Amino acid sequence: MLVMATLSTSAAQQEGLYDPAPPSNSAFVRVAGAPAATLGTRSVVADKGAVSTYVVIPQGDVSVRAGAASQKFRVEAGKFYTVVLHGGKLSLLPDAPADNRAKALLVVYNLSSLPSVDLKTADGKTTVIQGVKPGESGNRAVNGITVDLATFAGPRSLNVMKAVRLERGKAYAIVVTDGGTTLTASTTTR
Q1: Domains in the chain: ranges and CATH
Q2: Positive or negative CA dihedral for 92, 23, 100, 169?
Q3: For 48-85, what is each residue's pLDDT tens digit?
């Protein structure tokens, strides 16, 4: 009995250490291109040019409002999405799953007026993600590494990100806007 009481007390103490698991009918939605938005009844905030954290949303229809734009989207349980505000319009982009813990996931969102952007090593020699059109995203799983990355429009370098430490099991969002490029690392593996 003493052992059971000790285990019960230990479990109760650890219960507060972790967030509860989301309900099984949950989708995960974040916002890019808007400093503030509303997803259903949840408010979401992102640093300028960055993506917000994911918000747990019940599957089904979700109303999204960002600035003067509003729209309803349908989300599925177990899936990850990014709502993008681009050109005053909202769109819903499905996100690639970060299901390979041995790789880092890079995702590029083109929220600029450029016809296409690429993610390359800073020297331009190695293309990581190619041809991301305006209002769209591209992704690639890569090995964990520390590397200088840059976004490019054709041969022109837009922004260099020095010594980016890509950790296995994490996802990284790179948002390209007309004002520059922002890198956001997720704090947890999806």
Answers
A1: 24-95 (no CATH), 96-190 (2.60.40.1120)
A2: positive
A3: 788 999 999 999 999 999 989 999 999 999 999 999 99
For the residues of 131-164, what is the DSSP string, one character each? EEPTT-EEEEEE-SEEEEEEEEETTEEEEEEEEE
Cα separation, 128 vs 106, whole angstroms: 9
The kind and range of the H/E element at 43 are strand 42-45
Residue (of 189, 176, 184, 78) closest to 136 by Cα position: 176
Q: What is the pLDDT of residues 124-167, one digit of tens each?
A: 999 999 999 999 999 999 999 999 999 999 999 999 999 999 99
d(CA 170, CA 167): 6
CB atoms within 10 A of CB 150: 19
Q: Does the reported pTM lie above 0.85?
A: no
Residue 7 three-state SS: helix
- Assess contact for 109 and 174: CB atoms under 8 A: yes
